[in-house]
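Hi C.,

You asked whether I'd gotten around to modeling the 146-residue construct. I have! Everything is below, sequence then structure, no commentary in between.
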Amino acid sequence: MKLDVYLSGEIHTDWREQIIKGCQDSDLDITFTSANTDHDSSDSAGDGLGAEAQQFWRDHKSAKVNAMRIKNLIERCDIAVIRFGDKYKQWNAAFDAGYCAALNKPYITLHSEDIIHPLKEVDGSAQAWATNVEQVIELLKYTCGK
């Protein structure tokens, strides 16, 4: 079975690459997509629409441009994996999880046990909660019928 998997959330570790490599090593037929994970180009996504004197408006425009990409990729994916890291609050990941839930799009959360309580609603709508990339890879193997 071919799957399109959207990888959302934390951008400061290599969890995306680990999942992609693990799925490739398992010969899974998966296409992976993601939001823009480069801070500078994400922050400047709206700059082509003109310069802004206030940072709020620059961020506002870039958020809308980024949202076009994210919304499209989430709507097209079969499953999303949403990673919440330990170092920063990933409000964008929580938003992505809510969007998946609203679309009835299956998603897996990936986070450590120490943030179970703040993510209880996010986890409550997820089809699975994983604490490491190996678990995510196993879930994707099962979903692909391997």
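If it helps when you're writing up: The two ends are 9 Å apart (CA to CA).

Thanks,
B.
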